[in-house]
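Progress note, sequence design subtask.
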């Protein structure tokens, strides 16, 4: 199989693209751009809360599964 070397697939973040497009359309000094820039923090905090909740749920489920597999065995 022949493969082209040096060709990389570019994947862009839709959120980053959104903010870049806003900057291009309105400029950095517009009130809208400034407001949207401040909203990035809230957006990221929202994503963080989703991740924290998912991690907590996975840890909780994992501890239940490992506890259920243990059996006390009497050795004589």
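Output:
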């Amino acid at each position: 199989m022949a493969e082209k070397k040096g060709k990389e697939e570019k994947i862009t973040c839709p959120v980053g693209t959104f903010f870049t497009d806003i900057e291009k359309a309105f400029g950095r000094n517009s009130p809208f751009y400034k407001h949207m820039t401040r909203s990035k923090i809230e957006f990221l905090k929202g994503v963080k809360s989703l991740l924290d909740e998912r991690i907590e749920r996975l840890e909780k489920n994992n501890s239940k599964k490992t506890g259920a597999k243990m059996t006390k065995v009497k050795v004589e």
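The helical segments are 14-26, 31-69. Work on this subtask will continue into the next period as scheduled.
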